[in-house]
Amino acid sequence: MKSIVCLIILSFYTFSATAYAEDGIIKSDTIVGSSEQVDYKVTQHQGNLTLQLSTRDNKTMMSMLRHGVTVFFDLKGKEKEDVAVTYPIQPIQMSMKPEGGREVGFQSEAEINQMKTQINTLVTTDFPEEALLKLYDSKENFNVLLNGMGISATYFYNQKENLLTYQLTIPQNKIKEKSKNDFSKLMIGVQTAKPDKSKRSEGSEDLNSSMSSRGGGNRQGGSGGRGGGRGGSRDGGQRPGGDAEKAPQGIDFWFEAHL
Disordered: where is this region (predicted)? Predict the structure, then answer.
């Protein structure tokens, strides 16, 4: 009798493993992990994908709230930024110390409590409702509470634990390509505070003009024209010297979500 029971149990586990390891790609209904002070969780339920991003890091919270979060979806696993949801889409003015300061912000208990109170007030009463959906060459603004797309996005803040959570739910048919329904290679990118290319160009021109006036315009800087690679966690775009210390502590990473 015991041998029969063991055989049944073994058969069950073998079936489960086969179901989730089809084609050599491990699949799951739930993906969890962490990167750059952010814990993430992806779940698949009734045709929807839900992404949760949580952090207790004060600077990361400031970046998420001030500049919004952009979430990218790439079904081919190539980290393409063709499909994305950004929320909120307008920078939010907050009267706190810059999140990219010299590690002097939020040192006192009074400053920390003030920050918590302001975040709680912002998230619960004053937070904007407009988001942006990008589908390849098209862009569409929508309200996260009232829309016909089936997309919802919201921020939660646990003041006692100082935990900020962003939750995005999107129908899978919004991100799939044509009739394909294969999410086995899905990669999700998370980004905040993306540098403005026009402002960076203006800054580079000003810098070059300054160097030319000093007789150094013909010499090239030590860094190349482009940043590092795109795989895994990426640096937030800060450069040594200049305004690097004043730049927001943005997050910028990709992770596998094979569903």
Answer: 190-251
Long-range pairs for 201-210 at CB < 8 Å and ≥24 separation?
none
Residue 108 lies in a domain: yes
User: 66-78 b/e with 16+ CB inside 10 Å = b?
Assistant: bbbbbbbbbbeee
* Contact status, residue 208 vs residue 85, Cβ threshold 8 Å: no
Per-residue pLDDT tens over the stretch 90-131: 878 766 554 444 444 556 888 888 889 989 999 998 799 999
Residue indicated by tokens 């979060």: 69
Distance of CA 19 to the CA centre of its chain: 30
Digit-coded pLDDT (tens) for 141-151: 999 999 999 99
The total domain count for the chain is 1
Sequence length of the chain is 259
Checking if the pLDDT of 75 tops 80, the result is: yes
Q: Domain span at residue 168?
A: 23-195+231-256
Count of beta carbons in the 10 Å neighbourhood of residue 174? 16
